[in-house]
Give the backbone structure.
Amino acid sequence: MSHRPSRLFQNLSAKVAAIPMVLTAMVVFLGGSLWTIVYSFTDSKMLPRERWVGFSQYDRLWGTERWVVSIENLAIYGVLSLIFSLVIGFVLAALMDQKIRFEDAFRTIFLYPFALSFIVTGLVWQWLLNPDFGVQSVIRALGFDSFTFDPLYNADIAIYGILIAGLWQGTGLVMCLMLAGLRGIDEDIWKAARVDGIPMWKTYLFIVIPMMRPVFITTLVIITAGIVKLYDLVVAQTGGGPGISTEVPAKYVYDMMFRAQNLGQGLAASTMMLLSVIIIIIPWAYLEFGGKRRG
């Protein structure tokens, strides 16, 4: 009992300094989330109003083709982005970990796209994928007249054009996170694997990667958070087109709330996005903190 008061008042100045941040988080994030959920059950239009309609906004939401297409697009983009980001990022990190020459220069080059805003990235890749003066035009100028590469103008594959831009920007960050994890591996492990004659790919697959579990979990959460809020790239590259082929949930929310002036519908879509984030955070928190508590 005598130790409890002393522990309570340890680092008191730091705890007092954290009070404004905690209150801000409670009021802004928690309060805003609750407000969003409550008013998603109303028929609010341009301004919020307390006219309850139950789950009708959600029924209408999941009955709207545009929303369903946006979910499908996000699923395609999300799964492929997770796979390719982790694979490419880890491979680049493994290559960089070989103490290559000009490592600092290469690391800067790979990480530089992450410093750009999504709008700039989207505009750059809109230009690169433009069939009139982008990659297709350059290849055809070299004599390959039948070459075709215009994903942003083909509704069936337009989402993959968005994916290319997203991978170009985000893979560098994944590489740096993986490289930091690799640099934390004890050098004796590598020496022991070489002495035992274990092939390098088996060392990575069965020894190194399991040891980097916390790095992979953190990277997974960062990538997934970026996937859920995907908006800027789509607006900059395609504006959701051709048609609704590159529509995403965040853009649907924006258009409902600020263009269609249908606040209730926009908040219902926002609540579904919030639910997806919660589904991501709970397993991460369990893996990150539950295992430590058991240990």
The first helix runs from residue 3 to 8. The mean pLDDT is 87. Residues 61-294 form a domain with the MetI-like fold fold (CATH 1.10.3720.10). The radius of gyration is 24 Å.
